[in-house]
Amino acid sequence: MSENRTTPAPARALREADGATVVAVSGEIDLVSADALTARLDTLTAGPRPDLVLDLRPATFIDCAGLSVLCRARNRTLARRGRLRLVADDSTGLLRMLRLTGLGGVFEVHSRLP
Fold first, then answer.
1. Which of 33, 39, 60, 93 is surrounded by the most beta carbons within 10 Å?
2. Which among 38, 45, 53 is positioned nearest to 87, based on CA atoms?
3. How sure is the predictor about 1, in pLDDT bands with cuts at 50, 70 and 90?
């Protein structure tokens, strides 16, 4: 984790694709960026039936605070009868972290954008 960060910019891109909102999440998804990312995802999951794709491939790191943000987004999406998909490779350790925490089967994970 970088010690000299001043402003986290976790959700840098937003676009629509086949009815889904695609958000590219970059940088470190950690305690420093968790509040900003949570606020952004709360906005995107506020409506009925949100269809959200989080592209985590540009992310460089994720910790337990980041996993908590993902779990919150998943719970909000499911409560509104929506869908949350993650796009990830194992460069950030996300897939390994999901397996180690028992969350491996909880998220719908793809290796590329659907």
1. 33
2. 53
3. very low
The C-alpha angle 14, 106, 88, rounded to 5 degrees, equals 45
Cα Rg, the chain, nearest whole Å: 13
pLDDT range class, residue 40, cuts 50, 70, 90: very high
Q: Which CATH architecture has domain 11-110?
A: 2-Layer Sandwich (3.30)
Residue 94's Cβ-count burial label (10 Å; 0-12, 13-18, 19+) is: buried
| Tens digits of residue pLDDT in 5-25 | 544 546 655 677 778 999 999
Query: Residue 67 corresponds to which amino acid?
Result: L
The DSSP output letter for 89 is: -
Domain ranges of the chain: 11-110
